[in-house]
Structures are given as structure tokens and as C-alpha cells.
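Shipment paperwork, digital attachment
Item: protein structure file
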Amino acid sequence: MKKIDRLYIHIPFCKKKCSYCAFHSIPASDEILVEKYFAKLEQNIKENKHQTEALESIFIGGGTPSLLSAKRLEKLFSIIKNNFKIKDTAEISIENNPESLTDEKIHLISNFANRISIGIQSFNENHRSIIGRSGSLKNLYHTLEKLINNNIRNISIDLIYGIPTQTLKDWEHELTKVLDLPIKHLSAYSLTYEEGTKLYAQIKTQTSNESDEISADMWQLTSDILYKNNISRYEISNYSQPDYECKHNLDTWYGGQYIGFGPTASSFDGKKRWTQAKLKEWLENKEPELDYLNKLNRTIEIFITGLRTVKGWKIINKENENEIILDSVFHHNLSFKTIEWSKIFNKLIYLSEINLLNIKNIGKGEMLISATAKGLLFWDEIALEILE
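Attachment content:
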């Protein structure tokens, strides 16, 4: 079996929990706990690094990785460099909040990473307050200038739309601000009310103007405005200038293998997926949760996830062979037996008839299958139809 060439590390520490956040994160005030985390992380990496080959990408997420002290960040980068081979061309991403990026941290990060993702979520102070977003954006432009001066030019930001009281005009104003920034990539997510979050509890007593129609309008407006400025959608919620797509995430959507370290981090070896426990249980060596599907169901899962992307799949009908091959932009091939594919293809025909999929014959028994703009917006319906 091919070894894994993509690495994810989860840093669970945050200054405070945002009201919309369903990711595993905890306050970073307990230094003893942070020390235990680092000891366990290094131990797990040493025990499992043999599963990897030279890394194509690294993604450090959270939580808020940049909330770590400069000393801790330096240690984290040393652990990675000392235990993994990293290709010279590897994409190395790290998530940050602008208020926690000091000059010293920027210098350290720039000597290790080449891609920065900054969690802004909203430029509007009222909307930031509604979703419980802490920190100030007053130093954002200074931070971006510092990153660029330290040769970090592949900069992404995260925004959220569909926030209660937010209008379409408000969202247009947010996008206008994006275009004033020296960024290459934008992730724009519709606000979801995840059960167990503070915001989920609040909506039972607060009135929200969010509706599916408004969110859909905001989603379309994002594409329209960014496209005019050479930033195009390449996945449901992700937009970039040409050649600045997040390669780590693209590979994952197309079924690429990855290994994750840290609490709640997931790994996938091509057959099974396993997810680590939350911090307390992870420190106590609780076994990860295993998700194992048979070959056909796993292949269908990857096929559906690949339809989140604008490019979708290229289908190759192999003559004289009882097999259909699907090829992706990363050349991760999927294969179906002809009888399996015929059942799926009938569903794809129906989805194309209701304008959720494009099916284009390109000759020699080959075709391209991708979601339409409507299909990307209603990707859940595509998934449900194929899975039925």
C-alpha cells in the first residue's frame, strides 16, 4: 500500500470559544495542559511517522495555532521537521487569527510555512459580536504587510455569511473589503447552527433574518463579485486566484490519503478513516473512532465528495474490460465495476435532468461529470440521490 504523503495537526487551543464553533477547542490558559499536549503529540508522531513518505502538504489547524507562544510554535515546527521528510515543493498551511500574530511569530512561521489562513469571519463589529468572535481587526493591514515582507504571499482569509441581521448589502460590503486585501484565496462559509454550540442555544430565543433564500443570494453574489476580480470558485465554499487553490484540501476531497495528529484529528489510508478522541480522552490514550466502509461504499463516498469541486470527475470507459475509471485533477483514480456504475449513472442522468449535474461527452468513450452552479449550492441533494 502506498504510504501517506499529507499531514494534518490539530491545535485545540483558543482564546475563547466562538458561539458558532463546533470544532473541538478549549481555552489555552492551562500551561500544564499545553505541555501535556505537546508531549503526547510528539510521542504519537514518533510512533506513527513510519506510515508516511515525503510530504506533499502539511496543514496545521485548530483551534488557533497562532495563539501558541513563539517558543511553542518553534517547538511544533521542530517536531515536524525532525520526524518527517518534506518535499521542497510542499504546501505548508497554518491557521491564524490576526490579533495573535506578533512580529516574532510571523518570522517563525515564515521560516516554516508558505501558506497562511487567517480567520476574520466578518469585518463588521456588530456581526462579529453576534457570532462571539473575539479580538480586534485594527492591526489586520499591518499584519498582512508583515507577512508579505516575510515572503508569505499565499494568504487566505475565512469569512462567514448568513449572520443574523446581515443583509445582502452588508455582505457585498464585506466582499469589497476582501478585494482591498493582498490575498490569493477566500473561504466563505454559510453560518450553520450546530447543535451543542452557544449560537444554537441562542436562536431559540432570538429572532434571525437568516433564510435559505438570503444565504443562496449571498453565495451567488460571492462568485459574481470575486470572478470579476480574477478569483474563482473551485469548491462549494472556496475561491482562489489561478494556481492558488488549497492543494491539501483538494487532495482530500478527491480521496487522497492523509494522517492526522492531535485530539479529534482524522486520518485516511485509502480504506479506513479513524478519528482521535477529544483532548482529555486523547491524553488518556483512548482508541480512535474507526470508520470502515467496504470498497464500493468508500468509492461512492469519494465520488460524491469530489462533486463538491467545480471540475468534478473525468470518466474513462475502458474497452473490453469490466471496469469504469474515474480520474481527478490529482489523478486519484476510482474504479467501478460496469454493473455498479450503470446503477449510479442512471441517478446521474436524473440529476442532470433537474440541472444539478453537467454530463459532457468528450469522445473516445470519455465524459466529464461535474455539478452545475445550482448543484454546488444543493450538493446535499446530489449526495442523497446517489446514496439512495
